[in-house]
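Re: export button greyed out
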Amino acid sequence: MLKIENLKVKIGDREVLHGIDLQINDGETHVLMGPNGSGKSTLLMTIMGFGNYEITDGRIIYNGRDITHMPIHDRAKMGIGMLFQRPPTISGLKLGKLLSAVSGGKTGDIPAFARTVNMENFLERDINKGFSGGEIKRSEVLQLMVQRPDFVMIDEPESGVDLENIALMGNSIAQLLQKDQHIVNRQKSGLIITHTGHILNYIEADFGHVMIDGQIRCHGNPREILSVIKEKGYKECLACQQI
Ligand code: ADP
Ligand code: MG
Ligand code: MG
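Workaround output, generated via the alternate export path:
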C-alpha cells in the first residue's frame, strides 16, 4: 500500500528526515515510536503532503503511484487520511458541514458515526472551538470515520486525552482500521505514532519502528520494542536493527 524510499525532508533550511525507508502492506498497521523532536510528525505530514515539508530526495509510492509531489487533496481522494497531534480550531465552519463535505455523498451515515464517538451534539458547533482535549480528538476520529480512508495515519492519539476517552479513541481507531464489510478486498492499513503505547491495548499492530534524530533505527514487534524502551530507554534502540 505505502512504500517510502530514502526520504529526505527539510523544514526551512534544516534537514529533519535523513533518508527514511518504510513499507506498509495492505492490511498492516505499523506503530512509530521515538523521542520528542525526532521527526515522527514530520514523516506523517510529509506523507499527507503538507507544503512546509520540502522533499529533497527519495520518493513516496502509494498503491503503485508516485505521490511524492502530489497535492494534498489528491492524496486524500486516493484514500489517505490523517489525525493530527494538534488539530487547528476553525471558526465559522460547523463540524456537521465539514463532515458532509468529506462524506463523499454518504451524509446519511453521519449521525450513526457521531453517536459512536459521543459527538452527536457537536455537529452545529465550530470545529474544535472550545472543545476539550478529548472532544477535539473524538471530533478528528469522527472526520476520519466519515471520510473512510484506506490508509490511516494517527499522530499520538493518547496525548491530552483522559483514560475514559482513550478507551473510546482506541476502540474507534480499531474500527477505522477494520476491513470495510461492504467492499470486497478493501484492506485498510495504518501508521500510528504513540509515546505511551496505550493504543496497543485496542488495536492489532503488526510492526513497530523507532525514529531517532530523523532516522528509523529499530524495527520489530511493537510490544517488545515498547518494553525495551520502558526498561532501558531509547538509547537501546540505537544499537538495534531488529528486536
Ligand atoms: P516528533 O513528532 O518526533 O516529536 P517533529 O516531526 O514534530 O518531531 O519535529 C522534528 C524536528 O523538526 C524538531 O526539531 C522540530 O522542532 C522541527 N520542526 C517541526 N515542525 C517545524 C516547523 N514548522 N518549523 C520549524 N521546525 C519544525
Ligand atoms: Mg512529539
Ligand atoms: Mg510529533
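The chain has a mean pLDDT of 91. The button fix ships in the next patch.
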